[in-house]
C-alpha cells in the first residue's frame, strides 16, 4: 500500500474548535486514515482556541501582506492532530464563533477570512512546505471551496482535489466586487468558475473545479442532485454526477464508547444493558424529570432549527408524553424554539427537561440514559447523533432522509423477526408520520425483549470510521494512481 499525503482543509476540528458535525468528521478521520497508509495534516484558521491549544509550534512561512495584514503559517500538534495553522490576527483573533460575531451575524469579512484559508492551502499544494507535499487536498464545505480555484491558477504539477459537502444549505455567497480583493482574476468569474448568479459562490466554485466531489451519505448524494435538495446547485451536480459519491460518516468509537465513557454514572456494554438504569436515573435527576424507571425517556441532542424538525416534536408533544413518557433535550439555535421548549418544561413539570446551550458531558449522558433518541430532520446529510445512539443502546427514531435513511433499519415486522431492526424510520416528514413513529416506539417499549433486541442490534453495528476511511483512501488513490 503506497503511502499518501493528504492535506485536510477545514474551518473547525474537534476537539479544538467545534460548532457542528464538520468538526467531528475532521477530527476523527485522520487517525482512521492512518490505518490505511494515509498521512493527514489538518489545516485550520488560527482562532484563539487553536493557537492556545497548539503544541511545539514552528513558523514555516511568513506572509508580509495577506488579505489585509501580516500572517504566519505555523505547524504543530493539538488534540492529537498534526496541524497547519494560519496565524492571521486581523482575520481570526476575535471573539464569537468561527463564523458569527457576538451579535449573531456573519463576520462582514468572512469572504477574506476563508479565502485566506484556501489560498494558503493552495500554496502548500504547490510546495510551500517541503517537509510535507500533499498528494491530495481534501477541502471541507464552502469555507475551503476556493482551494481548487487557486490551484487552477497555478501550473502543473498540482495535487488532486476532493471537496466534501457536509450541508449544501451553506454555500458561502459573496458580492462580485470582492473578486480582486480575493486575488482572483476576471477570467475565473464565469459559469465554469466562481460566478454564481452574478455573485461569487465559494461552494459552487469548489464543486465546479474539484477533481472529486463527495458528500456524507449515499442518499444525500442523490438528494442534492434534485431541485428539491440541491439548493440551486443540483444542475451542476447532475452535470458532474460521474465524480459525485456519498461516503457515510462514522463516529470516533473511542470517544463514543459506553463501556469506557467517564461521563456516564455507570459504564456498560450490550451484555450489561441493565446498567443503563443508573444512567437513566442520573439523567432524570439532572434535568428535573420524575425518577421513574418505567417511563419511556425520549432524548434530543440537536441544533434547534427548522431543518432539524424539532417543531414537529413541539407540535406532537402532548401525544409524545402521553402514558407518562418523558423528554430530555439538549440544544440551542432558533430563539423561538428555545423559548418553546423552556415553556414546555414549565407546562409539563417532571416530564420535560431541557438544557439550552451545549454541554459535552450532558450529550453523553442523554445517549447513555435515554431510551430512544429523536432525529426528525427535514433533511440530514448524514447525522452523527443517531450513530452515537445506536452505539449507546438508545433507539433512534428518525425521518427517512439522507444519512438517516442509510444508517437506521426500520423496526417493521420482518426486520424485527430477522433481528435486523435498529430503530424507527418515518416519512414523509410531517406531523402525522412523526406521531405514528412515536406510537410505534411506545408499543414496542411494552415488549421489553423486543426492545432489548433493537438495542443489541444497534450496539453491534459498525458505526466507526474504519469502513469510511477505506473508501476515502481508495478515492484519494484514484487521484494519484501508483
Describe the structure in brief.
The longest helix has 16 residues, at 110-125.
3D architecture notes:
- This protein has helices at 21-34, 48-53, 89-92, 110-125, 147-152, 202-209, 218-223, 234-239, 276-286, 310-315, 317-320, 335-347, 360-369, 385-392, 402-407, 413-417, 431-445, 448-460, 466-479; strands at residues 4-9, 38-45, 55-63, 71-78, 81-87, 136-140, 160-165, 173-174, 195-196, 199-201, 212-215, 244-246, 297-304, 326-333, 352-356, 372-375, 395-399, 424-426.
- It is α/β, with parallel strands linked by helices.
- It has two domains: 4-250 and 466-479, Rossmann fold (3-Layer(aba) Sandwich), CATH 3.40.50; 273-460, Glycogen Phosphorylase B (Rossmann fold), CATH 3.40.50.
- The strands form three sheets. Strands 3-4-5-2-1-6-7-11-12 form a nine-stranded mixed sheet, with helices on both faces. Strands 15-14-13-16-17-18 form a six-stranded parallel sheet, with helices on both faces. A three-stranded antiparallel sheet has the order 8-10-9.
- β16 (372-375), α14 (385-392) and β17 (395-399) form a beta-alpha-beta unit.
- α9 (276-286) crosses α13 and α14 (385-392) crosses α18.
- The longest helix has 16 residues, at 110-125.
